[in-house]
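Quick one, tokens below:
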């Protein structure tokens, strides 16, 4: 029997809706941190080519360590592949990395990393890079892919390489020791960070004024600083210090421009990159501190919300927000806050699956999901005779069920059972 098109469409929508809450059990319960990849273009010693340095950072907590004698070891395969603009494979490298640590605590640390680097000499142009690692113990495989531009530094004049972020720089005599920040997130670098890039001086310049500008996504200027840097002919290594501690959470574009010392009417050269400011556990959908605070409404007490919102500066608001979550951190001796991670993972999931004329976390279904997580059972009644469509979400551990009714017939399910008594029990 052939079903009418409208009925078939409704059945497909319902099938999709039925999957929503069930698959969320994994979404909220398995928070797998990604690994970071950064690709930076420098001038090559080979004529007409550019050197691309590709870094990957794998947190120890993502690796499967095995105790061997008095040490813990992990091994993984790493593959880096580069494709040109026609999606043809240009180069691929595969190798095995072995990691050893002396303590179990370090083997599960999210702040300890295995950092690898490979360099490629390439013609300038557009590329796609694919970086894959495979844990040899757990057999888990993860991949990061991104588009990138390999710059051309062969033309006469002054050119600036791509920017490397540095989380720590130490001096020993004339030698510098650097720790690169592979992640674009500078929110966890306390105080100041350093920028590293190379200036290729094929001119008579003996110095330049380097101006750093950081713009928000709305092109608002958030930070500006400048430094006079002496230059020699050829390749120059430049380190610039930036105090980014005042930046609120969000996504930014960082620019470095080189101006003649006598004028800023036009720059000799420029380079830029994206950076972000976030704390562990906040999803990328959180763009500002006010949104993050608003999304505490279901779990915070009124006086706690008022205390955070009454802060007079963004820095103070961030400080109070962090204090709120520190009090709820189930493992305060680690850098992660699993409670915060779970909360914002639920927010992100609710926004994806429960959106209806408003953000998903603000809907009734989104509210219940954010507060209580995945229900133990979902009982759906879309076509019962004599009643409007409704759903029953049961939470066995709470000995409670919530009923949602679609009064309009357009999928706008509203909660019809009390929630606050159950929520009060959880808060107490």
């Amino acid at each position: 029997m052939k079903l009418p098109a409208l009925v078939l469409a409704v059945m497909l929508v319902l099938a999709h809706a039925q999957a929503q809450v069930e698959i969320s059990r994994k979404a909220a319960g398995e928070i797998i941190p990604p690994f970071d990849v950064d690709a930076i273009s420098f001038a090559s010693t080979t004529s007409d080519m550019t050197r691309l340095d590709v870094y990957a950072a794998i947190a120890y907590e993502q690796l499967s360590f095995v105790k061997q004698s008095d040490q813990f070891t992990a091994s993984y395969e790493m593959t880096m592949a580069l494709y040109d603009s026609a999606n043809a494979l240009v180069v691929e490298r595969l190798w095995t990395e072995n990691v050893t640590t002396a303590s179990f605590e370090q083997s599960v640390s999210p702040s300890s990393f295995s950092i690898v680097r490979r360099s490629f000499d390439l013609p300038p142009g557009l590329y796609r890079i694919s970086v894959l690692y495979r844990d040899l113990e757990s057999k888990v495989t993860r991949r990061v892919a991104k588009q990138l531009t390999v710059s051309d530094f062969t033309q006469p004049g002054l050119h600036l390489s791509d920017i490397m972020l540095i989380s720590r720089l130490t001096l020993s005599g004339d030698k510098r020791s650097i720790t690169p920040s592979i992640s674009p997130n500078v929110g966890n670098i306390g105080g100041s960070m350093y920028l590293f890039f190379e200036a290729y001086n094929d001119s008579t310049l003996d110095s330049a004024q380097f101006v750093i500008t950081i713009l928000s996504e709305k092109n608002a200027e958030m930070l500006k600083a400048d430094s006079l840097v002496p230059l020699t002919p050829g390749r120059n290594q430049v380190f610039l210090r930036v105090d980014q501690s005042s930046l609120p959470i969000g996504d930014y574009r960082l620019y470095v421009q080189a101006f003649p010392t006598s004028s800023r009417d036009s720059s000799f050269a420029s380079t830029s990159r994206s950076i972000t400011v976030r704390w562990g556990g906040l999803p990328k959908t959180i763009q500002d501190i006010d949104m993050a605070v608003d999304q505490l409404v279901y779990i915070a007490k009124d006086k706690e919300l008022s205390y955070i919102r009454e802060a007079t500066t963004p820095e103070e608001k961030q400080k109070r927000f962090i204090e709120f979550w520190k009090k709820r951190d189930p493992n305060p001796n680690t850098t992660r806050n699993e409670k915060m991670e779970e909360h914002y993972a639920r927010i992100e999931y609710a926004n994806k699956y429960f959106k209806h004329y408003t953000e998903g976390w603000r809907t009734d279904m989104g509210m219940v999901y954010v507060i209580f997580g995945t229900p133990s059972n979902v009982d759906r009644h879309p076509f019962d005779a004599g009643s409007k469509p409704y759903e029953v979400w049961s939470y066995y551990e709470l000995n409670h069920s919530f009923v949602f009714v679609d009064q309009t017939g357009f999928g706008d399910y509203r909660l019809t059972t009390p929630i606050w008594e159950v929520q009060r029990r959880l808060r107490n």
